[in-house]
């Protein structure tokens, strides 16, 4: 990637660049460490990532941000080699931010961080262009391996997530309209209210619900919402 331009003055939710490496194998004069940007709204998590990254030969913590707005500004300024991106940010969806980052920089190498195990969420992230997908509970064991793999242009998905994804191959995804309907079911809306909100008939709503139950192998609308939340189709 191109050399970074001078970045903005760090704000309250923005970390300062990482320190030089203090341990590990020495880099040669011709090798520049791969820069890593972390966008996550938990400052303690970013601090932990910074410590791990800066302790690894060949890597450098370039900085971190706590919001999508700050993260986008830092990404534009630093053009990191690898970006760690939380899927849930306080001001914007991580997947939405990833679309912006990749539109501006198609070669951006992004690892999605999340607490959700759902295969649907992992599938959406990978389809949107993420090269890596990590549960935050796996950071201690998998973070460095994921960064090195993604920096080398390889995909990194932990085995247990990959197994869930492969088990769902061939299944039909919920359509955008079906997701809209199911989100409103999760909010407690009646079929009549859902139809009014979406500008469709109550009968059409019932048709969407029938399709949703079939695709998710759900017994009823409450069961469908439970499955959708477990698999990461959406969150509440």
Describe the structure.
- Strand 3, helix 3 and strand 4 form a beta-alpha-beta unit.
- The protein has two domains: 134 residues, Rossmann fold (3-Layer(aba) Sandwich), CATH 3.40.50.2300; 56 residues, Winged helix-like DNA-binding domain superfamily/Winged helix DNA-binding domain (Arc Repressor Mutant, subunit A), CATH 1.10.10.10.
- The two termini are 37 Å apart.
- The chain has a five-stranded parallel sheet with strand order 2-1-3-4-5, sandwiched between helices.
- Helices cover 47% and strands 11% of the residues.
- It is α/β, with parallel strands linked by helices and 236 residues long.
- Helix 8 packs across helix 9.
- It contains ten helices and five strands.
Shape: elongated
Number of strands: 5
Characterize the biggest β-sheet: 5 strands, parallel
Order of helices and strands: EHEHEHEHEHHHHHH
Q: Percent range for helical residues?
A: 40-55%
Query: What number of structural domains do the residues give?
Result: 2
By helix and strand content, what is the structural category? alpha/beta
Largest beta sheet: what is the strand line-up?
Answer: 2-1-3-4-5
Protein name: LuxR family two component transcriptional regulator
Pfam family, one: Response_reg
Modified residues (4-aspartylphosphate): 86
InterPro entries: CheY-like_superfamily, NreC/VraR/RcsB-like_REC, Sig_transdc_resp-reg_C-effctor, Sig_transdc_resp-reg_receiver, Tscrpt_reg_LuxR_C, WalR-like
